[in-house]
């Protein structure tokens, strides 16, 4: 129990940890609003207010987040020219997303003219979806490479003395694969949310689709950021 509490403290000390917690609040309240809208308008209104407040607080908390893309490229630009190219495209899209998301937030709280909100929301969502496509492609390529490496390790084992080292390398590959699958799930979910803004349609814009997508994204982030 104490270990879990300690991990929770560490998790919530991170900016991403707080963001995933508030994102959970945001999309749980969206689903609650949809579920009780017809039967209990009072509860539905409070849920809607909670959703809006959570969304705005997340935008405020992410101030300056667009600069993390530069740091990501500086620290891990990729091992090959192909991966460096994918990393530039992915992080460029994410930087556009966060930068214009800041302007969207200022528009929605009344600091800037409200007429900017719709345009900024579209540009932000477009940058977000653009970046997520390349993040997803990169993760799938790395997952495939990990599977190929794992198979070579298993089939290339020559003697028993190598068992321990090979088992540890295989374990690390499997852990990395799970983390990347969580990242893919979160990015696909966020891509659906972004598409709802770029090209509104009955499927992506349905409250249940948005709510489930938001929770998948939030909980995927929980898993990836939870202290090991």
TrEMBL record:
Pfam families: PEX11. It is a multi-pass membrane protein. Its main location: membrane. Keywords: Membrane, Peroxisome, Peroxisome biogenesis, Transmembrane, Transmembrane helix. It comes from the Eukaryota. InterPro entries: PEX11. One of its GO terms (biological process) is regulation of peroxisome size. The chain crosses the membrane at residues 83-100, 120-143. GO terms for cellular component: peroxisomal membrane. One of its GO terms (molecular function) is identical protein binding. It is found in: Peroxisome membrane. Involved in peroxisomal proliferation. Promotes peroxisomal duplication, aggregation or elongation without fission. Homooligomer. Interacts with ARC5 and FIS1B on peroxisomes. PANTHER family: PEROXISOMAL BIOGENESIS FACTOR 11, PEROXISOMAL MEMBRANE PROTEIN 11B. Belongs to the peroxin-11 family. This is Peroxisomal membrane protein 11B.
């Amino acid at each position: 129990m104490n270990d879990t509490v300690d991990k929770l403290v560490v998790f919530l000390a991170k900016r991403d940890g707080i963001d995933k917690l508030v994102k959970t609040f945001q999309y749980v309240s969206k689903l609650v609003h949809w579920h009780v809208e017809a039967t209990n308008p009072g509860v539905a209104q409070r849920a809607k207010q909670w959703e809006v407040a959570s969304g705005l607080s997340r935008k405020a908390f992410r101030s300056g987040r667009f600069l993390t893309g530069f740091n990501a490229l500086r620290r891990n630009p990729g091992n090959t020219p192909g991966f460096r190219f994918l990393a530039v495209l992915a992080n460029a899209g994410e930087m556009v997303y966060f930068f214009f998301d800041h302007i969207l937030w200022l528009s929605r709280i009344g600091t800037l003219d409200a007429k900017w909100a719709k345009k900024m929301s579209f540009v932000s969502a477009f940058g977000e979806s653009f970046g997520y496509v390349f993040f997803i492609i990169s993760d799938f390529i790395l997952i495939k490479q990990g599977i190929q490496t794992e198979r070579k390790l298993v089939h290339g084992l020559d003697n028993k003395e190598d068992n321990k080292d090979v088992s540890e390398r295989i374990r690390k590959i499997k852990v990395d694969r799970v983390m990347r699958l969580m990242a893919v799930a979160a990015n696909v979910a966020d891509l659906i949310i972004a598409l709802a803004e770029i090209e509104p349609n009955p499927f992506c814009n349905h409250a249940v689709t948005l709510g489930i997508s938001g929770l998948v994204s939030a909980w995927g982030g929980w898993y990836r950021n939870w202290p090991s």
